[in-house]
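Students often ask why we bother predicting the structure of a whole assembly rather than each chain alone. The short answer is interfaces. A chain on its own may look different once its partners are present, and contacts between molecules only exist in the joint model. In this exercise we take two input lines together and write out one structure for the complete complex. Read the inputs first and try to guess which parts will touch.
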Amino acid sequence: AQSVTQPDIHITVSEGASLELRCNYSYGATPYLFWYVQSPGQGLQLLLKYFSGDTLVQGIKGFEAEFKRSQSSFNLRKPSVHWSDAAEYFCAVGASGTYKYIFGTGTRLKVLA
Amino acid sequence: EAGVVQSPRYKIIEKKQPVAFWCNPISGHNTLYWYLQNLGQGPELLIRYENEEAVDDSQLPKDRFSAERLKGVDSTLKIQPAELGDSAVYLCASSPGDGINEKLFFGSGTQLSVL
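Now the answer. The structure tokens for the assembled complex follow.
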């Protein structure tokens, strides 16, 4: 069965520091992978997605993620965090041939000024 | 372009009362989803529509939950009667197509509190 694990419930970083949010998935074939961000009181917004090809994908707001098949991971990174990046981040996996997205439990990011 | 619109934004009811949530997807989006988001959890699919047809409602607790999408546009999700455990955020999302590679556009959600 598909599953997504986000091992970090909370992460705190200083503004300007680099960021890496972890995501591990379980799926038998090549998954479709997504990162969404949810700001307080807002719906989820897609940051980036991976289906195939280059394993390093660029997204909006300066985010990038790298797909590593050997580690079943799809970690989200940003070289320099801004205070406005404080939000909750969800990793999701979708199985090709279905319409089901499985979301992780999320990582809440706090940014210190 | 207007986004996915949900109302109400907040709802507080007593247990055993009925409640309804409304969603207006982005114009032209044929696929509509209702997700449940419990506190500290990721969204979980309740039901997916392709136009007016519910194509996946396997996760919808049909004893108390119902949904409809008349004319394949707006959708309503209803709970009757509500239970304490239904307190959560109910998210509506839409996408232009029905593939797993489609980007989902989410509304701001309805936060339900059952007392």
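Check your guess against this: The radius of gyration of chain A is 13 Å.
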